[in-house]
Amino acid sequence: MPRPGPLRVLTGAVVAATLTWLGAWAAGAAEPPVGTPGDTGSGDSYYPAMGNGGYHVAHYDIDLTWRPLGRTVEARTVLTSRATKDLSSFNLELDGMQVESVHVDGAPAAYVRDGAELSVTPAQPVPDGTSFAVRVRYVGTPPVVVAEDGSSTGWIPTADGGTVLAEPTGAMAWFPVNNTPRDKATFDISVSVPNRLKAASNGALVRRDTGPKRTTWHWRERWPMAAYLATVSIGEYQMYRSSMANETSAGMPLLSFVDPRLGRAATARSQLPAVTSFLRRSFGPYPFDTSGMIVDNVRVGYALETQGRPVYPDAPPDWLIAHEMAHQWFGNSVTPRDWRDIWLNEGFATYSEWLWEAEKTGRPGVAQRNFDYYYGAHGAASPYWTLRPGDPGPENMFADQVYERGAMTLHALRTEVGTPAFFEILRAWVAENQHGSASTAEFVELAERVSGRQLDALFEAWLYTPSRPAL
Ligand SMILES: [Zn+2]
Fold it and tell me: What is the whole-number distance in angstroms between the Cα of residue 342 and the centre of ligand 1?
């Protein structure tokens, strides 16, 4: 409805009616706002089309039925979100599959698909600040999503099922999503599979409903989770239950799922509590309240730190457990706000491998040895040093230098500020940003605040300069 014109041109009866309408409008009781469309991107440096503006998601409720014949899903996802402006329409990302219906607060909504973008126009605009529920029904075969670096992400078919590995943007392969690490939410994930299969996911196993032919597995992640860390993994698993002590419980549940064709992963499962306890002593309390591992023959060439319960393509060695579990603090609890800052994940997880090796072997010089090794292995003229870990580019997000030079950056910081201040910085980083999203600039600022040093030159040299830093 257009704004009413000046009152002076109106006749008496119309003035009375208009004033009545204005009174109701002022009280917020009449017409909803007209609103404007939400942004179709999130402003990410590397994936600007991914993620959307105009709302924040608080909770995803994903309910899917998987059928081995045709490897298809029938799915329903409800997003509970809060509008951050008056919204006439908004976008989600969903790649592939067929959308059957979209409802907003129970009313059918119009929608248009363009590539991975799903644009939704509700029957009524959504007023700024209000909570609203979007229900999307969809069917089809969830796709593999090829990332900018060429790696396979999304829904990865396996011999006996499938596994979701969604970093950086593969979440849109299996549910409609605000596909950015800066919008974290809690999740309920329910998956129905034939009884001979199991369905692993994040967080706590709330319950299992078993019928004559199929079982529905209900999982809940009650801590905020970035969409790329959500997983479901379906297969003929052995399930192993155990527990470990953490800060709040003598028996934090550990639930692991192992493809028996890869063995029992008994050594790896037995190492998880010791590795996790070491990381807690180093960085502060474990950020979640469940853990475990998913071990399956996923032919992608990498493991992923899916929240609480990482996915490994084979029984993992202890250094890889240390890497993926360190991500629970660095990446999962404290998530990069922008994909450009991926070293906040990989540099920290790699440095944690070094710390774990020092702990395991009783040789405190491991980090210095590794620093010296990488520094010397690549001469000053080597192209190795041209890749900047603080801004590697979308095609090099997971290049060796992001891991190695990222870890060297942390070791250079430790050398500069001393070991006590270094760990104080890491603990403060985790404590101040837990369950949120943060940036490299905020890390530099925090490191300077905690250490009382000016550190711009150090981070500039190690993260952003395309040459080997001087020692
Ligand atoms: Zn990693």
Answer: 9
Rounded distance between C-alpha atoms, residue 394 and residue 381, angstroms:
24
**CATH class of residue range 237-318:** alpha beta
pLDDT band at 5 (very low <50, low <70, confident <90, very high): very low
Question: What is the CA(325)–ligand 1 centre distance, in A?
Answer: 9
Q: Residue 138 and residue 101: Cα distance in Å, rounded?
A: 7
Predicted confidence (pLDDT) per residue in 166-211, tens digit: 999 999 999 999 999 999 999 999 999 999 999 999 999 999 999 9
Q: Alpha-carbon distance 339 to 111, whole Å?
A: 29
Entry pTM: 0.92
At 73 the three-state DSSP class reads strand
> What is the distance in A from the centroid of ligand 1 to the CA of 287?
17
Give the distance (Å) from ligand 1 centre to CA of residue 141. 28
CA of 321 to the centre of ligand 1 (A): 10
122-162 pLDDT, tens digit each: 999 999 999 999 999 999 999 999 999 999 999 999 999 99
Cα-to-centroid distance, 77 and ligand 1 (Å): 28
The fold of the 339-463 domain, in CATH, is Neutral Protease; domain 2 (1.10.390)
Alpha-carbon gap, residue 427 to 250, rounded angstroms: 23
Q: For 17, how many CA atoms within 13 A lie in the half-sphere containing its CB?
A: 6
Q: Please tell me the distance between residue 225's alpha carbon and the centre of ligand 1 in angstroms.
A: 16
Within the chain, all domains assigned CATH 3.30.2010.30 are found at 237-318
